[in-house]
């Protein structure tokens, strides 16, 4: 038995017997979206495209390490951010400018999830876009 399979069998014992592959894929994706939001909101940024791109890639690469995450895409929109006027004036990542797409796969289930600011709700919503299950 491979190390990965061995560790998954150990972890699986803690999840209820009724928990499906679909449930686990949703759980892992939700954990990752929450981690992105709560770890990176407040991170200082500037309008400099190289700074923004570096942070987007860092979030994508680090969050791809979470269990069962196949893909993470992060976009930080700085278009509404004003230009800094002094050394203590900088922008930061917030719920209004952070957009995330991710794909989580566990067993036979693949879940597509997103997070972005929804103006009509005045809220950065995390949601399931689509679920695919192999038969």
Which keywords apply here?
alpha+beta, Pantoate--beta-alanine Ligase, Chain: A,domain 2, 33% helix, 135 residues, two-stranded antiparallel ribbon, 6 strands, single chain
What's the structural blueprint in terms of helices and strands?
Elements: H1 3-12, H2 21-40, E1 44-45, H3 49-63, E2 69-76, E3 91-92, E4 98-106, E5 109-118, E6 123-133
Notes on the structure:
With 135 residues, the chain is an alpha+beta fold. It has a single domain (20-81, 90-133), classed as Pantoate--beta-alanine Ligase, Chain: A,domain 2, CATH 3.30.1300. It has helices spanning 3-12, 21-40, 49-63; strands at residues 44-45, 69-76, 91-92, 98-106, 109-118, 123-133. The strands form 2 sheets. The chain has a 4-stranded antiparallel β-sheet with strand order 2-4-5-6. It has a two-stranded antiparallel ribbon with strand order 1-3. A hairpin with a 2-residue loop joins strand 4 and strand 5 (109-118).
């Amino acid at each position: 038995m491979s190390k990965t399979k061995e560790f998954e069998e150990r972890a699986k014992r803690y999840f209820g017997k009724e928990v499906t592959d679909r449930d686990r894929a949703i759980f892992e994706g939700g954990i990752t979206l929450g981690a992105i939001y709560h770890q990176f909101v407040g991170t200082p940024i500037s309008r400099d495209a190289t700074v923004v791109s570096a942070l987007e890639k860092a979030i994508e690469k680090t969050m791809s390490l979470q269990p069962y995450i196949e893909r993470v895409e992060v976009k930080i929109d700085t278009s509404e951010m004003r230009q800094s006027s002094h050394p203590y004036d900088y922008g930061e990542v917030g719920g209004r400018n952070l957009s995330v797409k991710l794909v989580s796969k566990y067993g036979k289930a693949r879940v597509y999830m997103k997070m972005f600011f929804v103006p009509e709700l005045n809220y950065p919503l995390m949601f399931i876009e689509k679920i695919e299950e192999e038969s």
